[in-house]
Fold this protein.
Amino acid sequence: MSTILACPECEDDVEISPSARLNEIIDCAGCSTELEILSLCPAVLACAPEVEEDWGE
Amino acid sequence: MSTILACPECEDDVEISPSARLNEIIDCAGCSTELEILSLCPAVLACAPEVEEDWGE
Amino acid sequence: MTTGPLTVVKCGGNPSVDSAGICADVAGLVAAGQSVLVVHGGSGEITRLAGKLGIPQRTLVSPDNVATRYTDPATLEVVVLALAGGVKPKLVAELSRLGVPSVGLTGLDGGMLRARRKSVVRSVVDGKTILIRDNLSGRLDEVRPRLAETLLQSGFVPVVSPPAADEHGHPVNVDADRAAAALAAALGADRLVLLTGAPGVLTDPGDDTSVLDTYEVPTTGAPGRFARGGMALKLIAAREALAGGVASVRIADGRVPGPVSRALAGSGTAVTMSPLPVPTADRSSVPGN
Amino acid sequence: MTTGPLTVVKCGGNPSVDSAGICADVAGLVAAGQSVLVVHGGSGEITRLAGKLGIPQRTLVSPDNVATRYTDPATLEVVVLALAGGVKPKLVAELSRLGVPSVGLTGLDGGMLRARRKSVVRSVVDGKTILIRDNLSGRLDEVRPRLAETLLQSGFVPVVSPPAADEHGHPVNVDADRAAAALAAALGADRLVLLTGAPGVLTDPGDDTSVLDTYEVPTTGAPGRFARGGMALKLIAAREALAGGVASVRIADGRVPGPVSRALAGSGTAVTMSPLPVPTADRSSVPGN
Ligand SMILES: [Zn+2]
Ligand SMILES: [Zn+2]
C-alpha cells in the first residue's frame, strides 16, 4: 500500500510507493521540487540537497 | 631405520635419523664439518653453506 | 638538474597496460635529459585486493550514466593499500632497476593534491535515483606543486597516485586522469600522455582501427559524441590540461611496446580544445601554481 | 630551509605506541625550526593484514635465539602493503593535518636503502637447525641519503620504512630500528630516538621501574646482559648510530603522551658505547654518505 505525505514545499500530496528506497529522490508533481525519502517507516520527506553537477566524476 | 652416508669432507660414516628434516644441519662426528641434508629420499648430504653470523637479525 | 621538457605520463590501472614498457620509455626520456612525472591508477589491483579481503565492490552510476567506484570507508582503505602499497612500489622498483631515481608519492604527501569531498552523490539503483552520503571521493580543487617541483629539480621521477586530502586533511579518492591533468597544468608541463587500453579515441568502440588522429573537445559541457565510458573522463582530463596551458595532450595505447615513445612520436589521438576567448570554469578550479 | 638540529625518530609497529602524540611532537619540533625524519615499522598492521589475507605468519628463531619474521614472498607483499599502504599514509595524513609537510618513503624510493639479501639463514625448528633459502630479508649495507637530504633541506619531514632494495633492485625486508640508525648516521643527525613499548632498557623485563638512565653497549659482539628479545636489536641499532657519529641515542617509551619531547628532555635510556680506538665493522658497513 502506498503512503501519502504532504510535499514540504507546496503541501501537495506525494505518493510513496511500497517499493521506495531509503534516500530515494522523487519529484513532487505539484511544484517539481526534488524530495528525498529520509525515512521509510514512518515515511519522512525533505527537500533533497543540491548535488553539484560535475561532468566526468 | 637410520640411513648411513659418507661425509663428503672426511668420508666418515654420518647417520641420518628417520626424524631428519629437509635442509637440516648436522655435524659430522669425524671432522666437525656442518653438513646439510639436501634430499631425504634418497638421502643426500653436502657441506652446509657458510651463513653470515649477524647479531640481531 | 634537468632542463629538458617535462612530460607527465598517466598509466592506467588496466592490467593489459605494459608497465615494464612504460618504465623503459621513462628511463629513455630521463637518459636524454628530460623530466618525467608518472601518475598511476590501479583499478585491477584494487579489485584483486578487495576480493582477497572480502570487501564487496560496488559501482555508482550517475543519472547521466557515468560509472564510478563506490568508495565507502572500507574501499578507500583498499584503494590506498593497493595504490600506495601495491602498484607504486612495483613501479618505483622497476624504475630503480633501470637506473632511474624515482619517488613514490600520493596526493597526501606534501599536501600535493587537495580535493573537495562530494558529501552527497546521486546514484541510479534499479531505476531509482538514490542519494549516497558515505562516498569518500572528491573533486580536485588545488595542486600544491612544490614537492613535485623540488623532486624534479633534483632529478627524481615522481610516481604519483590518489588519494588526495580533503578539506579536513582526510584521504579521498580522486580520478587519476584528472589528477595527472591538474599536475601537468600546475607544473607547467610541456606534454601530457594519457595511456589507456585502447589505441586512442575511437569512432567505433568495437573497432580499434577507427582511432582518430585528432579530437577537438568543446570548452565546456559534455566532451562530445565519441566520449563513451572511461573515455569521457579522459577527454575531460585532457581538456583541463589544455585549459591549464599544457601544449600537447595525447590519449594513446598503453598495451603496446614502448607506449610512451610511440605516443610522443605521434600515435594515438591528439586532443585539442575548441578556442573560446573567456576563461573556463576548469581553469579557475585548478590553479597553475 | 631549516638549519636547526636533525632528529631521527623511530616509532615502532607496536599498536600501543601513540602515533598521534608522536606526530604532535614532530610538529612542535618543526615549528621550532628543527628538522625531523621519522622511521616507522608496523608489525601490528602486518600481522592484522596477513590474517585478513589468510597468509600464515611464521617466525624464524636463530641458533642464538633471536626471533625474526619469516618473510617469504607472500609475506613480503603484505609487509609492503601494510607499511607503504597502511601505516605510512596515516602518519603522513596526521602530520599534514598538524600543518607539517611530510613525505612518505620506502627504502626503494631514490634507491635510499640498499641491503644484501641473506640467501641462507638458519632457523631452529623443533630443536633442529634448518636452512631457509626463500627468506626475503636482508642486512642494510648502504644508505643513499640524497633524497632525504633534498627533502629535509626543503622543509619536508620524510616518513621512511622498509623495504630496502637488494643488490638486484628487488624489495627485501630490513630491520626498521637499524634502518633508522643507518639513516641517522648517513644524514649526520644530531639525535636518534628509538621509541618502544617499554620505558627504556630494563634490568628486569617484568618491572617497568627497573629502567636504566644510561646503558653502555660494547663496541662489538652481543649487546650485553640486559638485551633481551627486541631490545637486543634496538641496542645494536643504537650502537650502529653511535659508531656512525650520532651524538645522542635514546631508547624511550612510545606509549606515553608527548613521547618524543619526553625522550629529548631526558626520559628513557641514553645509550653510550664503550670507547675503542679502532674503527668497528659496523662503521664500515654503513657509509656516512
Ligand atoms: Zn511540492
Ligand atoms: Zn666428516
